[in-house]
Amino acid sequence: MTSSEPALFCVDWGTSSFRAYLASLEGKILERNFSGGGILSLAKGEHEEALAGALAEWIAKYGPLPILMSGMIGARQGWVEVPYAQCPAGSKEVAAAIVTIESRRLGPIGLVPGVCAIDRDGSPDVMRGEETQIFGALAAMDRSEGAFVLPGTHSKWARVEEGRIQSFATYMTGEVFAALKDHTILGRLMEGASESSDGFAEGVRAASRLERPGDILHAIFMTRTLGLFDRLEPGQLPDYLSGLLIGAELQSGARGASGAIVIGSPELTARYCAAGGILGLALEPAPEDCAPLGQLALLACRRKA
Amino acid sequence: MTSSEPALFCVDWGTSSFRAYLASLEGKILERNFSGGGILSLAKGEHEEALAGALAEWIAKYGPLPILMSGMIGARQGWVEVPYAQCPAGSKEVAAAIVTIESRRLGPIGLVPGVCAIDRDGSPDVMRGEETQIFGALAAMDRSEGAFVLPGTHSKWARVEEGRIQSFATYMTGEVFAALKDHTILGRLMEGASESSDGFAEGVRAASRLERPGDILHAIFMTRTLGLFDRLEPGQLPDYLSGLLIGAELQSGARGASGAIVIGSPELTARYCAAGGILGLALEPAPEDCAPLGQLALLACRRKA
Questions:
Q1: Which residues of A touch B171 (CB under 8 A)?
Q2: Domains and CATH numbers, chain B
Q3: Helix and strand tally (H, E) in chain A?
């Protein structure tokens, strides 16, 4: 077996998504399979069968291979709860905390732990899966420090120094957006996305004018009044709210840094980079496949240890 | 007829509540009837019958009397749309903009307009009903200036000078709380209210430590992690989120003022006053029945004009 042959199934298994990668030992991603469901769609005891089903074709073709998984699959509501590694945590600390379970059908499966941190106020914060993506971005970009943002339902902002995640904070931006749009009066005047991106830019600029933390509880109401007074079209209103929330997140998450590396879907990454441009923050997209690249980096660490 | 006899039906008809008051000309509230539904429960064309039904007993007893109404009943989605009066607006300006409709069943009905304003950022804001409550509080407290907060689904903060509402801002605090509790992950660990008020105070204190507008998108996530790490009991989590949002609202709404007069339900007023105490803001409850007292003040203005 050469180092470019299939050697590992890398699985990034989150709340609402399942992403499997066929990787070689030298760190090449050979094939991708995003066909499974997130852990929210499964009950306790159903994970092994779901994973076997999702990997069946690869196993038939390449035989059983070691499996490494990261993400919410290691949470209390996942397959097996894997205790968090504590910040500051680099790939060494996280690799050392990988838990291996034996599946009768699938053989040994490594579960990457999440990471926990105590924030500026002494409150705990947690991530599962994003730490692995950050290690992947560090490896792919040959870096050992920087600010990272992983936008999404729960965006994560992390500071990395000397290859270790020093601290991070969760922002509920995506979930707040959805709750406000679908479950408050703000959704009433909204229509599907318009072609114009004016609404988004307007929202980001509104965020840049906020002064106090509570100001945003007022500013979001403008999503309604700007529609009522015909200052924005119904199709621009969702973008306005999105720009307002993302703009506020960026200014809080960056906390004086001049920029950050964005690890996310192409669509969300573009949205964050556009907001950064308006706010004078240099946001730079990370390479693709950060999750399996991070898992491979953890594996390399484990082999060295 | 003496001035203490029943002379007027005052109706404060909002989105989710209907409150009718039997008033004398000298400004006494003689009876109350809160039995009807809010305008959200009615379709176009159903308001006259609903009002006739709610007032039937009083009309049978005291005969038909003039009716004055304020609140969302004068909105586009209400009975008849009454154009907003523009800030700065005192009882004189608002009284002059009352629209009177003729009901075949009920006789003349006065509809108090809402008030609109342009906020610090040039964005429009609107209220309907709260302006009348503020005029009622001014009359009952014999004041002509101050900061006023009307907590609720959409809290309003208003500045009054020389008897006129100079400016105001809406905060979606109550609706944001409900959307986060019922439609995000934050509700998952929550249980019904606990006896202890520690969670609320903890939330208010967390709000006082926020620095940037976007910080609140992070701080609300602590409602989950403080539960996950057993730092707060499940029964304290709703109070924590409530304290966080109300605390943030207070610091933004007060904007450097040393206090404000609170016009609201006894329960919400107590909650806001408690948060004010923690933040060093002197919040003082307004007298009861501000809505009909405000309508009587508007009527007195109209008679003088």
A1: 214, 217-218, 221
A2: 83-100+109-305 (3.30.420.310)
A3: 10, 15
